[in-house]
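Thread title: Can someone regenerate the structure for this chain?

I was given the following input by a collaborator and told the matching structure tokens would be attached. They weren't. Posting the sequence so someone can regenerate them.
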Amino acid sequence: MSDKEKFLGEFEQFILLSILKLSDNAYGSAIRQLLAEAVNRDVTIGALYTTLERLEKKGLLTSKMGEVTPERGGRAKKYFKLTAQGQKALKRSKQALTDMWQGLSLSMQHKECSE
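Best answer:
Regenerated them for you:
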């Protein structure tokens, strides 16, 4: 794994966490809905699938096609699941953030980042 692949971006973390939360129901529109509800992030289906494909190429998740359903006009849902490597990457990212936050506090005494 290259240095660039060691850390997950925020959006990648949100997607992987969404897949964990949704468990066996982790498919495109369910992931989009969870991101909209949980982190108030409106994600285009194109951006979502581009990121899902990249994460799959990195070996952090796998996908499989579900059954064809009449409600979807005869199309099947594509379901996603984290791999062991994906779970490790999430844990590593969480630990890195925890380490960086150690000893810090955000208070009104500090200047705002936007200043």
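The beta strands are 61-69, 75-82.
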